[in-house]
Amino acid sequence: MLILLAVSLSLVLWTGRPESAKYAEMACTFENRAPTCIDSVRDWREGLAFYDSNLSVTRDPLASLKSLLWDFWNIEFAGAGEAAVSAEAILPLRVLETRKSGCMGLSWLAMMVAEARGIPLDVILLPGHVYLRYGKDDGRAQAGFAPKTVNLEPNRRGYTYSDEEYRKKYKAGRWTGLEFKPLLPAQFMGLAAFDMGNLYLQTDPSRALRWYRLAGDLFPEYPGIAENQKIAKRRLPDSL
How far is it, in rounded angstroms, from Cα 176 to Cα 136? Predict the structure, then answer.
């Protein structure tokens, strides 16, 4: 299935299949920019150069990634509430500009680095939250061996919570059955589009609907998308 990215008032920049979605390309197209725009972003290029230099010394991809995100770029948590779900905290190119982020923007930026440098990194979904998981789960933990994965909390500079701590922390949230499973790039983009739609749900339901349609195409399994689409449609002027 081909998907047309057309969420602004006049934009059509990306057409493709969900399985071909790339983090860096979508970071550009979500901002109405050409899919290869990341190559012209100075902070991005300098960040990758820092990562490569750090990795050549430490030989530790995880330590080098954490140093890039929270030392070199020095990205801070934007704060609880609306600040963490604003466009500036969701869209990674804006995060690079402001150096402030919520869980989505930091995770998106981290996945762009992982995509560019082959780092084994995943985004994991929780109710109303995402976090990062480094490494690949080969089942050793269930067999009594030390786990080969490390959780990174994006809002606490990579602090490691265990899965059980996350379960307790978010137990009161709305669980969908999608939690603790690595998100595919398209699913993550769908979640980001859903969050962008939510920004306009109260003030511009027509714009919110465009984001929700994209979200539904990319992440149809996520139940909140269809629900908010219905809300946005009820809020449209009768003439539309």
Answer: 23
